[in-house]
Amino acid sequence: MTPTVDTLRSFAAGYVPAVTGDQMREIDRVMIEELGITLVQMMENAGLQLADLVRRHIAAPLAGGRVAVLAGRGHNGGGGLAAARRLSNLGADVTAVLADAPENFQDIPALQLSILRRINVPISQFDGTLPAHDVLVDALIGYGLRGAPRGTTRYVIVAANESTARTISLDAPSGVDVNTGEAPGEAIRAHATLTLALPKTGLLEPGARSFVGELYVADIGVPPSVYAGLGLHVPPLFADGPLARLLL
Hints:
about 250 residues; alpha/beta; Rossmann fold; 9-stranded mixed β-sheet; 7 helices; 9 strands; about 35% helix
């Protein structure tokens, strides 16, 4: 039986502290520089939990279900590519759609892309249309948004919003400012958003609701001591599993 979101533990959004983009950068920095928890580890966790949420949302059986993963060249895109691999491993018909030329992917996102090539997951650069899909995964832009999306990324967002399929965003809907919840330009209107570690402040703003959709949070392995160092008290969100739902 396919798991559903109804089986996830739910919390009122106000029960969980929210963080700004700068606070999340500091959490990432402490994880990597002080604790030695690598970005690859965090990205793998993000990809695994994102794949699980997609599995819970897809209407048809996952085996043979068509998933288009929209990936930018940054770390958010790398998390989406990790999810693409996981979904392919589970039997989904996955295509990775890149918002930039493959040669512009660097470091860990490039590594994730190279793994997809080796296991023969189809990869295409956006050409104005999206492949046939039952679910869209938005992994274009994360908390590093600076101004309105530009270039190809903007056109990918427009195409995604024209789709009638369920769209699931990673960390934040691409184009939404994680601090304010405002969209300075085109922005994904997601059916669901899987934010990482903790919700971002802007995602809880009333004006962001039409972009965020249902809000979920994923465990990426942040130790409580990291939150404590920032003066944050985080309840045990993931005692029953690595995904939880936040009620807005």
